[in-house]
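Checklist before submission:
- one chain only
- standard amino acids only
- sequence pasted in full

Submission:
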Amino acid sequence: MKNSFNKYFLFLSFIYLVLFLSSLYFGVVSLKKAMAFATIRTYSINGEKLLKKGKAAIAKTLWHRGEQLYEQIENKPGYYTQVYKGFHDAGQCLFRLGKYQQAIAAFNQALRVHPYSISDLGRRAAAADKIGDYDLVIESLSLCEQIYPLNWQVAYNLADAYRKTGKLAQAVPYYEQAWERNPRQIPILLQLLSSHLTLGNLGAADRLIKQVENRKIKPKERQYLTRAEKIITILKAKKAREAEKPYGPRIRKSR
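Returned file contents:
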């Protein structure tokens, strides 16, 4: 009985020792990963500061260092609560280096941990836009729109993505939302106006122009609106002539 108890005790001790050593190992590798990501964050932030100061070459050097460090730790084990921020910073370094596909992969890693991170969804959309993956842009920004529905930039960028895919009818509602949320941004109105003209929504285009006819705007923007008014007048006249054509011969015969 005593021998069986000793064996059981030794077995449990062994199990606890294995668990302790495993936990210790995982803690050490997680700490190393956290420290590496903290360094990458420093490279990313300092690079942005240098870029604003016009020191792009030095900034690029820092981002390269961040990229190299990320390659060393990307697939290594380890986890901590803010790990998604580490992947975000690595993605930002890769984005700045023009490595958009790798940047998307890093942002995807961040989103696996924090799937509703506006910053990661936004940066992934920006990277996808650079390589022309507009389906991913729309997917990312649609999630942003659900999470943060009052942001005019999200609505505008989403509309822009639909426009680039040739889906103007789907772009218009988002341009309208962006304009409603920030009516000081005349470029939004100009894009919305252009979309309405392309789709033949002359009434909607005319109403848009009237919204800003008494506002002080840039000369180039005013010139665009003046040209748009002329186009609307021409298209309305053309529509009126086309509408009269089927009835013209009948009217003459009745006479």
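Reviewer check: The longest helix spans residues 2-52.
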